[in-house]
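Lab manual, section 2.4: Encoding a predicted structure.

Procedure: take the sequence of the chain (130 residues), apply the prediction step described in section 2.3, and record the output as structure tokens. A sample record is shown.
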Amino acid sequence: MDDLLAVRDELLRLKRQGAPILNGEALLNAWPNHFRREKAPPEVMPCRVGMRNYFIRSDGRLEVCWFFKPIGNVRTQTAREIWYSEEARTRRKETVACDKLCLFTCLAQRTLQDKLKMGLTFLTGAQEAH
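Recorded output:
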């Protein structure tokens, strides 16, 4: 845990100095609590991964979160059938109710300020490459 905290502190220092570190401060600060298996704080709830993620595994299984069962398989169903299925509705309800601090929750969401900074970093980096 000491090593994790040292790495986190260094990343925060670099980020505050303008280093292009994508992770937000809230996410970096949540690392220790995540590894202590603490619950997500109320201010980042509910979890929205079930409403925004669509992971297709190599065998065709479709998941919205690795903590929950798949919602279908693209080898036997269309993407639309899977997304609007009863299984998907059930999984979205389960993920919204989840209180794990898995670092994949709303902590991973980018604020408008984060997105603007990312865009500026991309644009300035692209200009420097030419």
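Check your result against the sample. The CA atoms of residues 11 and 19 lie 9 Å apart.
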